[in-house]
Protein: Nucleoside phosphorylase domain-containing protein
Organism: Geothrix limicola
Amino acid sequence: MRLLLSAFAPELGPLAGAPPAGWETATVGVGAVTAAAATARLLAEHRPEAVLFLGTCGRYDERLALFECLWASEAIATSLEEVRGGAYRPGIEKVGWASTLAGPLPAQAVAVPPAITCTVEGASLLASVAPVEHLELTGVFAACHQAGVPCGGALVVVNDVGPDAQAQWKANHAEGSRRLVESLRAAGCFEGA
């Protein structure tokens, strides 16, 4: 059995009520800490052979198009204060977790700040870390790495990071999630589980 996760059910798109054969679905909540705790619990309860996280993300600049689907090559914990030089992490703290599953979509690094970035200046600064922002992936990947469970993440760009992000996300997240699932199905991602 493989586990298909998302922050909340709508981001599973059409798979929310009908997971592919060999897969189970679950949600982990919003934010990296909540996602890490929920993922660790789900791994202990279900003991899956692999985990795939599906979600939406915002783009920092125009390297990626709206509704473009991507495979998260790495989830990077970061913050605006770190990028600005106003904060730092101890050198022994792990801040990046790689996908350990190969994916059928173009690979991109994903920045995972502690909160949604709502300024153009913030988006510009965080663009030096990755092309997109997402809130849960470091938690999911960290829990999977700790448990030795292969993991991957597939995301779809549904908004520009900045002051209009929330309205844009609300308008686009359902369509984006549908397109992401369609892309994964077309690539044969759910076959042979």
Notes: The first helix runs from residue 32 to 46. The mean pLDDT is 96.
